[in-house]
Specification:
Layout lengths: L1 E4 L18 E7 L16 E7 L6 E2 L11 E7 L5 E2 L9 E5 L8 E2 L12 E3 L18 E3 L20 E3 L3 H31 L7 E5 L5 E5 L4 E6 L14 H4 L15 E3 L15 H27 L6 H30 L7 H6 L1 H33 L10 H20 L22 H32 L7 H33 L7 H10 L3 H12 L2 H13 L4 H24 L5 H13 L1
Parallel strand pairs: 1-2, 2-3, 3-5, 4-6, 5-7, 6-8, 7-9, 9-10, 10-11, 11-15
Antiparallel strand pairs: 12-13, 13-14
Helix pairs in contact: 3-4, 3-10, 3-11, 3-12, 4-6, 4-7, 4-11, 6-7, 6-8, 8-9, 9-11, 12-13
Length: 614
């Protein structure tokens, strides 16, 4: 033992030479800077343990560092040192049983060929290190892998490298999804190899037998028949990585009724298990959602971009309805960008999301997506509410021009909506809830009381907004229902349009709000997997429908669209027709206004319908 010698800076080459009976060597808490020469120990002991710990100035493990250790079983406990990297062929010539590298806080790199030339290890412990990747060679013999608190290890090597793995203790639950897939593959492989034999196993549950599964220390597996005094078959570790659960002597096995587990291969275990928020699946989970989300996000982006382009480039005066529609289109455009980002990452990580989950959910990409969706959702709901109130106000006070909502009123109202939406979207980035909880980057973290209050606040405000929208449209419908003002066919048209507006709002808000409120009270009624259906089918309904219901289907928008197209050399005849109709309507209104001392019922009706048309 060489312990607690901080002044020991160097051990000369050959200091440990010809020590045939040495079983254990410990060099801990010294000031050594260069890895000591251990190649000339030549211990004849079958099991040898080398311990290097708390040597903080020792930064590398060089090539052939342990070459002279030809013991049948070598345990290397290399923990709490200053290692930063391990060179190629560092363990060349050894027969490793355990390789313990835990608590090397600065260890960032193990060369891909560090284990080349070595047999084993059976146990590898890299917990509490800064490793970003595992070597691509030498993992085939590992049966136990410990990588707890290895937060930089975000990706795993190809799964076929872990052909002998039986137990994995990892940092991230998503990595256990990889081994769950591997476990399924092993089960299928076992069934294909031993399918006929498994029927005999199952039948052994119903009758006594002297045939047993046996596993010796070298993990060779065979089926022994006491009656026939022979092995029915045998497989070695190279041809079959499976072992069986039952190990009994003859006296214990005579006349024993097998349980079903004895007929199954010993399957690897992995912790921590994936939780309810991060199940073992791709970002979108279902295949049909992967197709549908592309159609929805393209529709949302194209529709809202078109509305924005037409409204911004229009040469007509910027009115309050146009200004509000620009804000709504921008909000819904951001929702389309969120869906596009989710769809793109899902397409890139399909089938291997477990290897990308940590980078995605803890990185800037998920935070950006989460910000987009919360900002867009809240600004859209806020703007829809303002648009509805503006329409109700316009119809209610149609003849009182002094009470008309002006642009100077609408700008500060919408500025308040922008500030509110940005604040709500930024809070998860500041620790109030989190966008990292789930793969779809929604703020579903309700672990703290503040996070729970945040989620409930958003949901309650959205419900209140929906109630206000419904109330305003009901009042609008009552106003335009007056037969003295509007003809019956016009009344039906208005009713249908308002019904569609309310239905789309309800379809978007109701399912999300219902399930989200129950989850906020920690009584979830739907799984994260099923919530992704809501995300794609219901959550963006307004973003897709709003540009059509509030803009594209209106006469004013179609006029602006064809006028814009005429500037580009297209649809000139349609544009000219709209110009003539607009001029005729304007002239007619001027004549009607000058000929009568007050507004007629017909003009009232036109005002009501024009407010809804806007």
């Amino acid at each position: 033992l060489i312990l607690n010698t901080k002044n020991l800076l160097h051990i000369e080459d050959g200091a440990f030479r010809n020590l045939p009976r040495l079983k254990y060597l410990s060099i801990c808490n010294t000031g050594i800077r260069q890895f000591p020469d251990l190649t000339q120990i030549f211990s004849l002991e079958a099991h040898f343990i080398l311990e290097l710990c708390d040597n903080l100035r020792m930064t590398t493990i060089p090539q052939n560092a342990f070459r002279g250790m030809n013991n049948e079983s070598l345990t290397l406990k290399l923990y709490k040192n200053g290692f930063e990297d391990i060179h190629s062929h560092a363990f060349n010539g050894t027969k490793l049983n355990q390789l313990i590298l835990k608590d090397n806080k600065n260890l960032r790199r193990i060369h891909n060929d560090a284990l080349r030339g070595a047999t084993g290890p059976d146990v590898l412990d890299i917990s509490s290190t800064a490793l970003e990747s595992l070597p691509s060679y030498g993992l085939e013999a590992i049966q136990v892998l410990n990588a707890t608190s290895s937060y930089s290890l975000k990706r795993l090597p190809p799964l076929d490298k872990f052909s002998s793995l039986l137990e994995a203790v990892l940092t991230y639950p998503s990595h256990c999804c990889a081994f769950r897939n591997l476990r399924t593959e092993k089960q299928n492989s076992w069934l294909s190899i031993f399918g006929n034999f498994s029927k005999e196993c199952e039948s052994s549950m119903r009758k006594p037998t002297n045939e047993i599964f046996y596993r010796d220390d070298s993990y060779n597996t065979s089926l022994w028949s006491a009656e026939k005094n022979t092995y029915l078959f045998a497989t070695d570790e190279e041809t079959s990585p499976y072992s069986y659960s039952a190990i009994f002597d003859d006296s214990e096995m005579t006349g024993f009724d097998f349980e079903y587990d004895f007929c199954q291969p010993k399957i690897l275990t992995c912790t921590p298990e994936p939780d309810a928020f991060n199940p073992c699946e791709d970002i979108l989970g279902y295949s049909f959602l992967r197709v549908l989300i592309w159609f929805i996000n393209i529709l949302a982006i194209a529709g809202n971009f078109t509305v924005l382009l037409v409204l911004i480039t229009s040469h007509y005066k910027l009115t309050v309805p146009r200004f509000l529609m620009c804000n709504l289109s921008f909000a819904d455009f951001c929702m389309g960008l969120y869906l596009l980002l989710i769809a793109s990452v899902d397409a890139q990580t399909s089938g291997q999301y477990y290897n990308h989950a940590i980078d995605w959910q803890t990185g800037s990409g998920c935070s950006t997506a989460g910000f987009f969706t919360v900002f867009a959702s809240e600004l859209s709901v806020y703007t829809l509410t303002v648009i509805t109130i503006e329409r109700w106000h316009t119809i209610t006070y149609a003849m009182q021009l002094d009470r008309k909502l002006r642009l100077r009123h609408a700008v500060p109202i919408m500025l308040g909506g922008w500030i509110f939406s940005i604040l709500i979207a930024v809070l998860p980035l500041l620790g109030v809830s989190s966008y990292m909880k789930v793969s779809i980057c929604l703020p579903m973290d309700i672990e703290t009381g503040l996070s729970q209050a945040y989620i409930l606040l958003i949901l309650v405000l959205n419900v209140i907004a929906f109630i206000v929208i419904c109330a305003c449209y009901i009042k609008i419908y009552i106003a335009v229902q007056n037969p003295e003002l509007v003809a019956a066919n016009k009344d039906t048209k208005v009713a249908k349009r308002m019904a569609i507006l309310i239905f789309t709002d309800f379809t978007c808000m109701a399912p999300i709000s219902f399930f989200a409120i129950s989850a906020a009270f920690k009584v979830p009624l739907i799984t994260v997997t099923n919530s992704k259906i809501l995300l794609v089918l219901f959550y963006p309904v307004n973003s897709c429908a709003n540009p059509f219901l509030y803009a594209i289907f209106t006469k004013a928008f179609r006029r602006d669209f064809f006028l814009l197209m005429s500037k580009l050399g297209c649809c000139k005849s349609r544009a000219e027709l709209y110009r003539m109709n607009y001029f005729s309507a304007y002239t007619s209104n001027c004549k009607n206004g000058s000929s009568a001392p007050g507004p007629s019922k017909a003009s009232q009706a036109l005002l009501l319908l024009s407010a809804l048309e806007k």
